[in-house]
Amino acid sequence: MAVAEWEDGVLFPEASKTEIARTKFLLGKYKNMRLLMDDYENHTKDMQQVAIDGEVARRIDQDDLHADKTANAVIVIEKQRRVYEQYRFRETALKRAHSLILSDDIKKAIRFRYFEGHSLKATCLFFGYDEKSSTIRGWVDTGIVTIANNLKLLGFFDSDAGKF
User: Fold this and answer.
1) If pLDDT is split at 50, 70 and 90, which confidence band does 71 have?
2) What does the pLDDT look like over 82-132, one tens digit per residue?
């Protein structure tokens, strides 16, 4: 955030439509991102061994006439680590932004819908509403915007991971 914004009295900047769309995208991918992170954390050694032994490292670029398998394995392993680090950064930012939501109902709706990976229909039913409840949809929509605003406040969209 620029200093001029602070001087103009904007203490709580609002996310743009693009930033809200990015937030919704990240929340939608959260469960898969978390599964891949868990897999990486639990099976890093196996993944590295596959990169060394397997065909993945044989030729990273199909146009290579000669492949240095050892060097390519290092590249593959480093790429896996970088993806994991990006996912971890995004997860931490989403969790921090989520923790700043004031409404317990909105916070629970977002947790159940995105962090636990349930459908909107299941989220409505979880709260005891019918599957087309505008109340739950409103909580989820408000939660997405609130998280986007919190991410903006935290400087997430200014980082490389926020720009993707």
Assistant:
1) low
2) 989 999 999 999 999 999 999 999 999 999 999 999 999 999 999 888 767
Angle (nearest 5°) at CA 156 between 163 and 20: 70
CA pair distance 144, 162, nearest whole angstrom: 15
Q: What is the dihedral of CA 17, 20, 21, 26, to 10 degrees?
A: 160
CA distance 26 to 111: 13
Contact between residue 150 and residue 103 where contact means Cβ atoms under 8 Å apart: no
Rounded CA-CA distance 54/75 in Å is 14
The DSSP annotation for the chain comes to --HHHHHTT-SSPPPPHHHHHHHHHHHHHHHHHHHHHHHHHHHHHHHHHHHHHSGGGT-SSTT-SS--HHHHHHHHHHHHHHHHHHHHHHHHHHHHHHHT---HHHHHHHIIIIIS---HHHHHHHTTS-TT-HHHHHHHHHHHHHHHHHHHHTTGGGSHHHH-
Q: Residue 47's closest CA among 67, 76, 70, 69?
A: 76
Q: Which amino acid is at 159?
A: S
Task: Name the token pair of 34.
Answer: 């978390």
pTM: 0.76
